[in-house]
Amino acid sequence: MPKDGGIGASSKRREDVRFLTGAGNYTDDINIHGQAHVFFLRSDIAHGTITGIDTSAAQGMPGVVKIFTGADFEAVGGMPCGWQVTDKHGAPMQEPRHPILAHGKVRHVGEPIAAVVADTLEQARDAAEAISVEIDELPAVVDMKAAVASDNVKVHDDLTSNLCYDWGFVEENKAATDEAFKKAAHVTTLELVNNRLVANPMEPRVAVGDYARGTDESTLYTTSQNPHVIRLLMGAFVLGIPEHKLRVVAPDVGGGFGTKIFHYQEEAFCTFAAKACNRAVKWTSSRSEAFMSDAHGRDHVTKIELALDAENNFTAVRTETYANMGAYLSTFAPSIPTWLHGTLMAGNYKTPLIYVNVKAVFTNTVPVDAYRGAGRPEATFQLERVIDKAARELGVDPVELRRQNFITEFPYATPVAVEYDTGDYHATMDKVLELSDRAGFAARRAASEAKGKLRGFGINCFIEACGIAPSNLVGQLGARAGLYESATVRVNATGGLVVMTGSHSHGQGHETAFPQVIADMIGIDESMIEVVHGDTANTPMGMGTYGSRSIAVGGSAMVRATEKIIAKAKKIASHLLEASESDIELKDGAFSVAGTDKSVAWGDVTLAAYVPHNYPLEDIEPGLEETAFYDPSNFTYPAGAYTCEVEVDPATGEVSIERFASADDFGNVVNPMIVEGQVHGGIAQGIGQALLENCSYDENGQLLTASYMDYTMPRADNLPQMDHYVVDHSCQTPCTHNPLGVKGCGEAGAIGSPPTVINAIIDALQSGGHRVDHIDMPATPARVWAAMHG
Amino acid sequence: MYNFDVETPGTVADAVAAIGRDEAQALGGGQTLIPTLKQRLASPSVLVSLSGIAEMKGVCMGDDGRLCIGGATTHATVAREAAQYPALAAMASHIGDPAVRNRGTIGGSLANNDPSACYPAGVLGSGATVVTNTREIASDEYFQGMFDTALEEGEIITEVRFPIPEAANYQKFVQPASRFALVGVFVAKFSGGVRVAVTGASEEGVFRWSEAEAALSSDFSTGAIDGLSLSGEGMISDLHGTGAYRAHLVGVMTKRAVDAAA
Domain FAD-binding PCMH-type spans what residues (chain B) (predicted)? Predict the structure, then answer.
């Protein structure tokens, strides 16, 4: 029976009422009396030396308040990087200065050079056109291997090379891994590209800086996934504003997908300029600006090798990846191809030896950082593609090759430094094969062939690591931040609750799901619970939302705070009931004395806490408000198995996805409807990466896909019909180390689906006699057709 | 956008007079011009909207049996009302999305002559006549290359007249991002012969595939063009497909159009 409330119920998303009826409050909806607008003059040259900026003609133009250039920011810090990676020789990564406005050089198309603050946006734009910028153009470097092979073009003159770091993991395993390849009965090798993507949240980025001269307080309203992180980074490392004088608010945010984690120049600029101009300053990104200023995602070039023994057991994996950093280090960029990528290279398999080498490279492109999945899709794609290729080379069933190598005993310590607490990979494989009716595939292939189409079946497994933690470990790995989460639970006198969470919701549905948990714990209706997030002024210091961490880490903090609330409420109840505290039971919103019919309602206890006339004041304080910080002891490890069936039109190379099925193990599930929506959306983005999306630069560093005319977003008709777009989460091995037994579901779809699609396309082409081993994403009609006729 | 004034004349004569002034620019449905203005890539001082001219709107049958479409008629109207020419109506119904079809006009599309637009293929493939405020221009003379037409400065397309073929069909293979035609082929079979017009493919804009026309005129079947192929030379080559791929698609789409029309 489906529940109608609490954990496990598909409660409807209460926030959707305001989102869908135009009653949301997004950052662009915020307008402050007297605010000015900023227009950023951005570089249209990928690489060059700035020899002069003349703003004199623009200064006196109508409405102009103030014009800023890089020289105005010499006294403040550059954009900080939140993670330091140590290379394979023990040296720290090369970390270039990242100015708020370009200073000396421009290093990518879209880099801001000057900023005009004016009464209106149009006036700011008019004045920006009157600014004369002289740039001596330098050759640009876009290709990562070229950037590393030669220092002819250096993105940063003060660094020794374009190599940010050369990371080996686990370095101690390298010799043994090499040895295993020498002894292997079979080695499969694959070179591939994980295509550069632009996140494209529906809401572009917005920043509004405000300054109160009377109190010397700055406020930034911004489209962020983690306002506390922005406050800490911008206050402490960029502008030098103490946190008690700085408030950061991220109100309703229209999608993030990772690209709104990072601290951006425009945020620091608007905060700085508001004080400098003594007026609020607003910036709303245009879609064109978003393409060239939002951090991009993925962009890896990889060679992976898989060694097998004579019985087809995996004996070793070796990979070499070039990871594009772009022109500067975005906030968490160095961690993505390393700790969020190398640690996943075991996948679902008991491969005993793994060695991962990653070369992070500076190029004259937009900075690259986390995008839904962040490192884990890149790991999964290469591993699952090479396994599929190995199965074909060995003439064995790709399902059976995977099953034979599955990890089956937990906890399992991988050779890449993580320990999986729990899982059941055969269960998700069984489930997805049942859901996808693999047995009926042959008949469906025959039907496709009868109409002149090729049909392929793709299988894929994945594991991800969510809720990155614990803080003391990530600190050793180079994180310059903690990775706990916080919650304050404030109970009101009349029994309602407000949860002030350090997590942030930008589409995930926290306002619905979090109350479901508390409703179950106390036994009250979900409608009595409200979630507050996104404002540093009224939430405890928290790390925000990314990496599928909110319910696993933020939810756990909320559980801990609620446990404290319940413990205190029991003390109050024991006083009211004149019974021993150990005899008090909480059930269905009432406290009762075990074995008696004496009870007191939740609301009477909460009222007593705030109107303490009959109250044990000598033992406990009045009030009912508790805070908890939760620092997990391990990652969580969601895993799953996905299948896809494609039809390929051999005349045009066009691929259509006919069926898709996913069987995920997310541990316990709080709201099945929200989870299914997350997986549907994640798969849609993964299909976007596999078939459609590609951020492309030419050799001069010009962005070729700078609008939706050339950058292909997935649309409804690119996805299968809903009755063949099946998502399942019934296989559940609860997480062993958090109080809810949850694992996180936000990224799974985007991690698991790209290799599934490509595996299916290769299967289709092979069935048509085309000896195609691999197609790089996106598998556009032109690429598929070229592969067939290559 | 830069600032500009807008005029909305009610007659062709008033529109011609308004456009004749300095820095004036005719505005059809605005599906190309408005984005251009938003990017500040054009700065006319006056936009002369053609959307208020009743005599330039609507679909009707002429006495000579030709389908007449006013220059300011939207794609949505053509899709809905050009029932006498189903292949043309179907083509119009797949241009852009509903918002584009409710604003974009046939005259605007033809005056712009985007190399990937659908209407140039429909007009050239039909052997239609472009009527302006000053003259009638045969489609074979009208299209002169990418974004280039026979229109003179200040000339307005008031109407397009389509002879109705015995059979016709348009096949579009879309560019995945913009969903303009990566290759679009319009095939029309008349008693006097077959016309095949191709959009999206050539660096010279819309063109007639004369070998296919000849083959199909003697045998209107897919088999007739089996041995024919185009060279990728002179075809558009970009992120979404090489010239060779486009040349190949012209053959595929032509066959599909013949199949659908026959």
Answer: 1-167
